Each structure stands twice: as C-alpha cells, then as structure tokens.
Amino acid sequence: MVSAMRISLLAGSAVTVLILAGCSSTSDEEPARVFATPDGQGLSAAVTEEALVGHLEELESIAAEHDGNRAAGTAGYDASVDYVVSQLESAGFEVTTPEFEFETFEAQTQTLSLAGTEIPVFALSYSPTTTAEGITARVVGAPAGADGCEATDYAGLDLAGAVAVVPRGVCPFGVKQTVAAELGAAAAIIVNNEPGPLDSGTLGDAETAQIPTGGVSQEDGATVLAAPEVTLTLVTETDTTMSRNIIAQTTTGSTENVVVTGAHLDSVPEGPGINDNGTGTAAVLETALQMGSAPEVTNAVRFAFWGAEENGLVGSTKYVEGLSDEDKRNIALYLNFDMIGSHNAGYLAYDGDDSDQVGEPAGPAGSDAIERTFVERLADEGTAVDGTDFDGRSDYGPFIEVGIPAGGVFSGADENKTAEQAEKWGGTADQTFDENYHTDQDTLANVDRAALAKNGAAVAYGIGVYAQSVEGPNGVPVGAEREAARAEG
Known about the structure:
Layout: E1 5-9, E2 15-20, E3 34-36, H1 40-46, H2 49-65, H3 75-90, E4 95-96, E5 99-114, E6 117-119, E7 122-123, E8 135-141, E9 163-167, H4 173-182, E10 187-191, E11 213-216, H5 218-226, E12 229-244, E13 246-249, E14 254-264, H6 274-291, E15 299-306, H7 314-321, H8 325-329, E16 331-336, E17 348-350, H9 367-380, E18 386-388, H10 397-401, E19 406-407, E20 409-410, H11 419-425, H12 449-468, H13 479-488
Parallel strand pairs: 8-9, 9-10, 10-11, 14-15, 14-16, 16-19, 17-18
Antiparallel strand pairs: 1-2, 2-3, 4-13, 5-6, 5-12, 7-11, 8-12, 13-15, 17-20
C-alpha cells in the first residue's frame, strides 16, 4: 500500500490525483489512483454503471463459490467481507471489522393443516419450535379492525391454548406474538395485509420469541380464520454464531459532524443477494473508492457495511448500541442504501417529513432535509420521486431510534408498483418492485441497470453533498440545535 501521500486539486479538472510523496513512478509500480472531486457533482459523475456492475459481478461470483449465498455466519459472507476490505484498503483506508454475536435461524418443517387441507405457511425468524407432531388447537382470530398489538384487542376472547390469528400491520410481529402469548395462546399465525405469501418475517430476536409463529398469505387468511381447528407444525432451530461489520472513515474532515453512510453486506440464505443488497453495497463502496481516504472535505465520512441485517438489523443495532453518548452526538446524519436496482424498479426516498402520512411518523429532525436532497437530485435528472415509509425494515432503524436523522434512496422490495408509478417510471403495475426478493433469482441478470446507475449516482451525490456541508437549506441540526433536537426526541 502507498503510505506517504498527498492530495492535490488539479485546476480546471474534475479530479484530484493521489501522488506518492518524494517518489517517482516506474513501470513496475501500480499507477497512481485518481480520485473524484469529493462533492456531490464530482462523486455522482465518477460512480459509473460499469464500476457498480463490476462489484456485483464479484459478489455474485463469491455466492456461486459458496453454496449460492452470502448469508451472515457463512463462508460466503466472510469472502464478501474480504472483498470489500481489500477494495477499501486499496484506496488507502484503515479498515476495522468489529465482531458481534447473532442468532441464526433455520426452519426444517413448515406445515399448516386444516380439515385435511394443507395451507402454505412460513415460520417467522426466531419462532420457537413445535414438536414434530405440531400443535393442534382451536383458532381464535383478532376481531375485525383489531391489530393484535394490545391485550384489549382480544377483549372477551379466550386465547388459552388457542392458535391466535392476527393481521400484519401497525406493530412488529414480535409484539403481536408476545401479546397473544401473554393471553395464553399456544401459537400465532400472522396474515399478510397484501397479496402474496408472508415469507420473510421475523420476531426480532430469540429473547422476544415466546410461541411458535408462522405467516400465511392474504389469500389464505380467510380460510384459516374460518377453520375451527388447525395443526401448525414449525420445527425450527436457533443457534448463536459470530459475524462482522466493516467500518472505514476518512482521515480528513470534522469529527464533530460525521456523515455515516451504510449498506448491509449479507444476503438471505436462499440466494446470492445481488439486488438485496449487493446494489447498495456496490454504491457505497464505489463512492468510498472514488472519494479516497483523505479527501478535501469539511466533514469526515464513515463508510459502514453491516452484517446480519437479514437476521434483524443485528450488525447496525450492535454498532449503535456500542457508541458512547459523545459518539452519537458527533454523528450528523446517517444515509442508508438497501436495494437500488430492483427488477421492476421504483424511485423512492425515505419519507423523512412524513408528508405521505403512511405508517411510522417523521424521522428525527433533519430527516426531512435529507429527503429533499435526494428528491431534488433525482428531479434534476428528470425522475419524480415517491416517498417510502421508515417502516423499520433496514439499517436506518437503530440510528433514528437514538435521534440521528436519516434518509436514502430505495428501488422497492415486496410491495406492489401502482398504476400511477408504472406510468411515471415504466415497468409493470400491480406487480412487486422485485419479484426476486429473497429468492435464488436475486442475481445480476435480474437487476435493472438503468435504476442501478441512476440511484448509484444519487447515492454518491448525497454522500458528497453532506461531506462538504451539513448546514444550509437541506442541512441537519448542528451544535446546540442538535443537542436540543435530540433531547426532545
């Protein structure tokens, strides 16, 4: 690695060049790395589709060599860590890979029988196991309009020994099964609130999980509710293992207004995870490579690649939990990028101001400004952006919980694209944004490369903008204003 370096801004050029201090290059040496101007425009121009695809090809090759996936706790994930670390080190970054414990979950048997009919069911991650024979019990459904988030939702109903059937929505699955368990239910079934199976839910962690819990499709929900009795068999296993995050920070810029940007590196066990979340990883990584470890920036930039996101945001949660109060105060904002090349792509930005009035409330003070940064950037490129809820399904969750403003772009997962969105962006209405989500078909062949390129440039733009300033019309609270905003939160 090059150790003694200086960065010089070339007049009239869009790039800065890394020069070996006191040395002359020879034909045997690697050529000096060329870094982009570390602002929004410079970085967005430098992060190309070709470079992003190159990273995705590497991640797909890693998955192919390791049982078809890059899931946390596997050799495929470790190889993915090695690749990202080697890339960052090649750009001069000092890289750490802090370890953490997490729980792996495997469902060996998943069946739901009623009156001789088999209904597809999927165990929610960390669901306790049933016996091999399963649980046969009467069905008690939450009343119409009730979400099963509070004990009062079951007023007048006897859940003792029953299988509670409750709709998805409003509160986490872990809360729903906890409420049912505390009322004496033997098991729980969550019914999807939109067409399609509920095949990727989680109870959060093994400590939260109290009773066997599975998910069924919206289409099958009415059949389950109408059954007087069901047999639910979920033979599962939860083990404790280790994984790693990757952290690299610029050596330049203020450490009192750190810009943290991250993407989860792990895939689900079912597939290679190239859109989810190779695309976010590629965009954050390539931005780091184009910026370099010692750019001329106002604020330090910390690049993070999270482990075990698919196991319940474990890596990012452990990271935030390990921060001191001063560390948290010194983080100006967090930018999250999770899926930016979906097959039936949308152009979405996290709804920092809750202007959509959907789901969760607005993010911490400054999240509205981050949303505007991405909306305005994509609008300048001719793309109108819709909001997407802070629904807690990605690594911004632990940051907003401690009052750190957050935002980012997203191309959609298992939600359906509306007719209005299809007219605006192209693609197919009434189909999910990514039909390959959490499957073995989440491959490079199924990435929308136009969306990847456009969103990848937006990722770099947002990072570059805040690297230079976290103040102004689209800025976030600083100094005493930050202290006051987070105290109120």
